[in-house]
Amino acid sequence: MRRVIAALVVVGLAIAVVALWPRSDAGDTTGEATTTTSTSTTEPDLTTTTTTSTTVPTTSSTSVLDDHVVETVEEAEAILASHYYRWFKGIYEEDVSLIRSTVILEEQVDAATAQFGHMEFASEPKSDSFGFAETEILESNADCLAVWTIVSASFRDGSSEGVLIFRTVNSEWRFLSSWQSKSDLWGADCESSL
After folding, report:
1. Which pTM was predicted?
2. Is 87 exposed, middle or buried (0-12, 13-18, 19+ CB in 10 A)?
3. Which of the listed residues 9, 28, 95, 143 has the most CB atoms within 10 Å of its CB?
4. What are the pLDDT tens digits along the chain (194 aa)?
5. CA nearest neighbour of 50 among 164, 178, 152
6. 104 closest CA partner among 42, 163, 154, 175
7. DSSP string, 5-46
């Protein structure tokens, strides 16, 4: 059962990485984070799009204080920004240790390294490259953080939305999985043992 869950997490992460920023108009490379939300209908080429500008607090720390519970959207967005920065900077620089510092599963590291030399970047990822919209903390306790958000990056076109699950490992928040919808069965990821 654990292997099945791990395989599903890896597949989900690989899909999220490849499709993280789907089709969009010419990218905004001004450094201002814009969010583009695409919603698919029954016909794959029909989408609706809205754009908003947001700013994100700059941080590089995902440390967890003893039994700390994330209570504010700003704090959750700082954890998200740190994760995305290390993930994309690791792919950009082909730095396995940087990627490993933000994820839990070795399969996630493998999914990232598979993108080395293939993922396109308009510019180098920076810690302040990320914008978030509609962020909502779905669950927060000392061991698990589940956050719904729409994320965009100044160095890539488009945006991605979904639920991201973080668990504490060695007193740090580490990425475990992502889900497309708030109504998905993400709660099991907060309850599973690592």
Report:
1. 0.67
2. buried
3. 9
4. 444 444 444 434 443 433 333 333 333 333 433 333 333 333 344 333 333 333 333 343 444 445 678 999 999 999 999 999 999 999 999 999 999 999 999 999 999 999 999 999 999 999 999 999 999 999 999 999 999 999 999 999 999 999 999 999 988 999 999 999 999 999 999 998 87
5. 152
6. 175
7. HHHHHHHHHHHHHHHSS-S-SS---SS--EEEEEEE-SSTT-
Using DSSP's 3-state secondary structure scheme, residue 92 falls into: helix
How far is the C-alpha of 147 from the C-alpha of 135, rounded, in Å?
A: 7
Pairing of strands 144-153, 159-169: antiparallel
Amino acid at 186: W
Residue whose C-alpha is closest to residue 183's, from 148, 142, 144, 143: 148
